[in-house]
């Protein structure tokens, strides 16, 4: 498939990362995702934090090519992926926090909106870059649901419930790409999804 045109500065940055990354055990496709995460953060520690389930890239790529909806937790993730989605498969994008005018009792607004999205699109791609409560609620639903998302990207950032939410995701059987520990964020979640879009576009049928 035709390659997506990349800005010269992006190409130069990737070259620097290639020179500095050192030894690693990532597959070429996994490394393409890691490299975009490092580019978005200038943080090589993600080399030790990024985790892939065996079927994550294949499942996610196939779902993107089928134009399955993408659910983001917050608007910053949506903003970060919108351009690349438009350049590739034009998947519908829903932002969880925008699906709930008010929060349900005991829940955040993002968590409430994500549960609304889950009821409508349980097989969507879920991209969590900010709200660990939303990721925890999603994982709770996955424990008892026969329907699985095509892919979950778990990369919330912070100190409260963040590591717990990622561990909950690790304990589910769903295809997943996650960032261990406290690090992550909207830019990281968007970088993972954007790299997957590029892989799906350049290596798949569309």
Characteristics:
globular, 49% helix, alpha/beta, 206 residues, Rossmann fold, 8 helices
Order of helices and strands: HHEHEHEHEHEHEH
Give the proportion of residues in helices: 40-55%
Name of the CATH first level: Alpha Beta
Q: Helix/strand/pairing class, anyone?
A: alpha/beta
Report what the structure shows:
The mean pLDDT is 95. This protein has helices at 8-20, 28-41, 56-65, 75-87, 109-120, 132-142, 162-170, 186-203, and strands spanning 50-52, 70-72, 93-95, 125-128, 151-154, 176-179. The chain has a six-stranded mixed beta sheet with strand order 1-6-5-4-2-3, with helices on both faces. Helix 2 (28-41) packs antiparallel against helix 8 (186-203) and helix 5 (109-120) runs parallel beside helix 6 (132-142). Helix content is 49%, strand content 10%. The protein is globular, with a radius of gyration of 16 Å. The protein is built from eight helices and six strands. The chain has a single domain (8-203), classed as 3-Layer(aba) Sandwich (Rossmann fold). It starts with 7 loop residues before the first helix and ends with a helix. Helix 7 (162-170) links the parallel strand 5 and strand 6. By secondary structure, it is an alpha/beta fold.
Q: In short, what is this structure?
A:
With 206 residues, the chain is of the alpha/beta class. It has helices at residues 8-20, 28-41, 56-65, 75-87, 109-120, 132-142, 162-170, 186-203; strands spanning 50-52, 70-72, 93-95, 125-128, 151-154, 176-179. The protein has a single domain (8-203), classed as Rossmann fold (3-Layer(aba) Sandwich), CATH 3.40.50.10230.
